[in-house]
Amino acid sequence: MLPVTPTDYTGDGHQHALSEILGITQCKWFTVTATSVASGPGRVGDDTIEADGGGFVVSDGFSKVFPPIALAMSFYDLTKWFILIASGDTVSIGAAV
Question: Could you give the CA distance from residue 21 to residue 83 in angstroms, rounded to a whole number?
Fold first, then answer.
C-alpha cells in the first residue's frame, strides 16, 4: 500500500466526493479527522448526507479510520463516499492505495 498525503479540506456547506478532494478514485483505507469544526457538525457517508443527514457525524474532535479492506483486489470506491462540512470548517483526509 502507498500512502496518499493527507489533505486539509475546508468546507463550503455542500457535499463533495472524496475522490474529488483526494484526487484518487479508490483506496484500501481512508481516515477523516476534524481539524476545526466549530460551525456545526458535518457528515461523511453516501450521496444522501446532504439531503437526509445520514452517515457519520463529524464534529470537533472527530477522528475515524475506515479500516483496510482485507481482500487483495477490493477497494473503497471514493466516487461513492462524500463529505459535507460547514463553510470555513476544516478536516484532514488521508488514504492509502
Answer: 9
